[in-house]
Every structure is written in structure tokens, then in C-alpha cells.
Amino acid sequence: MISPEEIKKLRQDITFQKTLRDIPFIFHSTWGLFSPRDIDEGSLLLLTYIEIGKTNDCLDLGCGYGPLGLTMAKLAPEGTTTLVDRDFKAIEYSQKNADLNNIANVDILLSNGFDQIRDKKFDIIVSNIPAKVGNELMTLFFTDARRQLKPGGQVYVVTINGLRDYIKRTFKEIFGNYKKLKQGKNYTVHTAEKVS
Hints:
The protein is an alpha/beta fold. 33% of the residues lie in helices and 30% in strands. It contains six helices and nine strands. The protein has helices spanning 4-11, 41-49, 67-75, 88-100, 135-148, 164-175, and strands spanning 14-20, 23-29, 58-61, 81-85, 106-110, 122-128, 149-160, 179-183, 187-193. The strands form two sheets. A seven-stranded mixed sheet has the order 5-4-3-6-7-9-8, with helices on both faces. Strands 1-2 form a two-stranded antiparallel sheet. Helix 4 (88-100) links the parallel strand 4 (81-85) and strand 5 (106-110). The chain starts with a helix and ends with a strand.
């Protein structure tokens, strides 16, 4: 039998510190969110390869508790970074982590994909895409990403290695270009640019 004390402990926030792109963060998360106890391998790989200017407007699609989006907000202090997720707990914890880390240049929205983005345009769009979302939904995401990018803007995604051929083919179809930035043991970082 699980004791009331054990249940109470499970309900408490998971808290950890992490340095991302030479920036120290404190994160709170909870059970049910993706990779709640530490930043996952795919996100760490993705963060290594994103190129961000200090005035860039960025979007983190599927932000979870915020590690990608909040790092981008710190790297682009003169821009605005938008974090979206369809999970209300993810939005709650992204806002909590923005407040904890004194990050004000963020918009954090409950949104199924790009539904709540409206006409906002971005220099950088990033996503750590779960394989289970399926090719159809990814195709919609990438089509919407192209629409929301400014000319010359870039999309960066990290996926499991098994999706790399699909991403390459789909980016070439939607953006007309594709670049593999890094293939690690388990994950690949991909990018494409909105040329026109």
C-alpha cells in the first residue's frame, strides 16, 4: 500500500537546475510532462545547433515545461519568444519557469499546433517532435511553420533517427530545401529555410 506521505511527495514539483547554452536555469516540472526530471537528449542536441540572433522572434512548438523556448528567449533578449503547447499543465509550468528565471520577453499560449498563433511571424521555429504524432500531423505543422516564418526564417526540428528520411523529403517538398545539422546516436537535428 502506498502511504499518504509517498502520494504527497509525488504531487510535489520536480525541481532541478541545468545550464543550457552557458545560461543557468532552474526548472520545475511534474509527472505527466515530457522528460520531467531532466532535459532530454534530443532537446540538448537541438539547442547545440540553433543559431539565434539577439533580436529574433522565436517559436517553441510543443514547449513542455519550457527548456527550449526559455533558452531562446534568453538568447534573443530584444525579440519575443512564443511558447505553445496543447497541454495546459505544460503551459502552467512554462509560465512558472519563465517567472522563476526572470524571463519577461515571452508569450506562453495554450494552442493545438499553430491554432492560436494568428498572424504572428517568426525568425526561428523549433520543435522536439515526438515520433508518435504521425506523419500527417507533422506535415500540417511544417506547412503551418512555413506560413508563419518571415522570409529567410528557419525551422529547426529534432527527431528520432528513424524519421530522418521522412523529414528530409517533407522539408524539400514544403520549403524547397533541407539541411541535416547533426545525426547523433539516437536523434537527428534538421533545418530548412523559408527562401521566399
